[in-house]
């Protein structure tokens, strides 16, 4: 089982390198993932793959974790620096946000954005 820090690092590195299978390897099969730019959630591997494939066809996000803490309720909070550009290189968002994870059986089961 991966530590929270290693789990988070693997997930973000996979995302930034557009390696969907790497990220899915640290996700629970019933992952509940937010559609950050659309609202709502997708659930499960296929839905995440479809969402990210569509998203990466429209925008170019890079998300770097800068701090990881475990909240009193057991959720893992990841402070991230996020740079999102459109496909022409125009910056759409440049700043920090919090990603909050539920980890089950050593895998990411849910992510929320604060």
UniProtKB/TrEMBL annotation:
Entry's transmembrane regions: none
SUPFAM superfamilies from the UniProt entry: NTF2-like
Domain of life: Bacteria
InterPro entries: NTF2-like_dom_sf (IPR032710), SnoaL-like (IPR037401)
Pfam families documented for this protein: SnoaL_2
Domain SnoaL-like, residue spans: 9-107
Gene3D superfamilies: 3.10.450.50
Protein name: SnoaL-like domain-containing protein
Organism, scientific name: Mucilaginibacter pineti
